[in-house]
Design goal:
Number of strands: 10
Structural class: alpha/beta
Bound molecules: adenosine-5'-triphosphate, pantothenoic acid, potassium ion
CATH topology of the largest domain: Nucleotidyltransferase, domain 5
Strand order of the largest sheet: 3-2-1-4-5
CATH superfamily of the largest domain: ATPase, nucleotide binding domain
CATH architecture of the largest domain: 2-Layer Sandwich
Length: 244
C-alpha cells in the first residue's frame, strides 16, 4: 500500500481575487481561483493544513479563517517577518513589504541560481531585484493594467474605455483602442526596464513573470523571460519544506 503524501492548501489572497493551490513538499498540484466558502470547505477535506498569504482586506481573511477553524484544520498565517533565510529583504522595515512579493522572490530562487528580477502583473504591477546571494536589492510598485485604464476613465472628461475587452494591437485608431494599447505598452515598458536594469548590473541573470494579467502581454515578452504562473506557490512550498 502506498503512503499518502500530505497535501497542504495554500491561499494567495490578493486585491482582486483569491488563488489556491494544493502543495506537497515537492510539487504544486491542483491550482485555481477560490470561488466561495463551500469551495473552501471542499478543499479543506483533503488538506493536512492551510498556509495563508494575504495582501488583501483583513476582514475577508478573518471570514476565511472562521471557515477553516470550524473544520478543525490547522492553519498558519504567513508574514514577511517569518524568517526563511533564502531571501533577505531590502526594506528597513521588512513587515511593510507585500508578502506576495517576498513569496514570488522565494519561488523564483527555486528556479534560478543567478541574480534575478521577478515581475508580478496583478492588481498592481511589482518588480523585485535579487542578487546571486539572495539579497533583495529593492523594487518597483505601479498600477496594474486594469487600474491604469480605470483611473483614466474616472479622471478625464473625454477619455472613454471599453471595460468589456482589451484591444491588443500595438497602436490604436480610436479612443478605446488608444487607451488599451497605451496601458499595455506601459506594462511592457516596465518589463523592458527591468531587463535593462539587470543588464546594467549583472552579466548573467534571469527574469521571471507572473500575475493574472500576464496573458495580455505574453506575445511580446522580452526574449528569455520565464512565465511561471504558480511562482508564489513555489515560494509557499519553500516555507512548508522548512516548517512542516
Ligand atoms: N477570473 C478572474 N478574476 C479576477 N481577475 C482576473 C481573472 N482572470 C484574470 N484576471 C486578471 O487578473 C488581474 C489580477 O491579477 P492577480 O490575480 O494576479 O492579482 P491579485 O492577486 O488579485 O492582486 P495583487 O496580487 O496585485 O494584489 C486582474 O486585473 C484581472 O484583469
Ligand atoms: C503591491 C501589492 C499590492 C502587490 O500585490 C502588495 O505587494 C502590497 O500590498 N504591498 C505592500 C507594500 C509594499 O510591498 O511595499
Ligand atoms: K494589488
Amino acid at each position: 500500500m502506498s503512503e499518502r503524501i500530505p497535501e497542504y492548501l495554500c491561499l494567495d489572497i490578493g486585491n482582486s481575487r483569491v488563488k489556491y493551490a494544493m502543495v506537497t513538499k515537492r510539487e504544486v498540484t491542483d491550482t485555481g481561483i477560490l470561488t466561495d466558502q463551500n469551495h473552501l470547505q471542499q478543499l479543506l477535506v483533503k488538506s493536512e493544513g492551510v498556509y495563508i498569504a494575504s495582501v488583501g482586506q483583513t476582514e475577508y481573511v478573518a471570514e476565511l479563517i472562521k471557515v477553516i477553524q470550524s473544520s478543525n484544520c490547522r492553519y498558519e498565517l504567513l508574514s514577511t517577518s517569518t524568517q526563511v533565510q533564502a531571501i533577505a529583504v531590502a526594506y528597513n522595515n521588512p513587515a511593510k513589504l507585500g508578502l506576495d512579493r517576498w513569496l514570488a522572490m522565494l519561488g523564483a530562487r527555486r528556479f534560478s541560481s543567478r541574480p534575478f528580477a521577478v515581475l508580478d502583473i496583478g492588481t498592481a504591477i511589482t518588480c523585485d531585484f535579487v542578487d546571486v546571494g539572495g539579497q533583495h536589492l529593492g523594487g518597483w510598485i505601479c498600477p496594474g493594467i486594469q487600474l491604469m485604464r480605470q483611473s483614466l476613465a474616472k479622471n478625464t472628461a473625454r477619455v472613454t474605455t471599453n471595460q468589456q475587452q482589451w484591444y491588443v494591437g500595438d497602436i490604436g485608431k480610436d479612443t478605446e483602442e488608444c487607451v488599451d494599447s497605451g496601458c499595455l505598452v506601459m506594462a511592457k515598458g516596465i518589463i523592458d526596464r527591468a531587463d535593462l536594469w539587470m543588464k546594467n548590473q549583472f552579466s548573467d541573470y534571469d527574469l521571471f513573470i507572473c500575475g493574472g494579467d500576464c496573458d495580455l502581454l505574453l506575445p511580446e515578452f522580452v526574449s528569455g523571460i520565464r512565465h511561471i504562473p504558480d511562482i508564489i506557490f513555489y515560494g509557499m512550498m519553500q516555507f512548508i519544506s522548512e516548517k512542516a
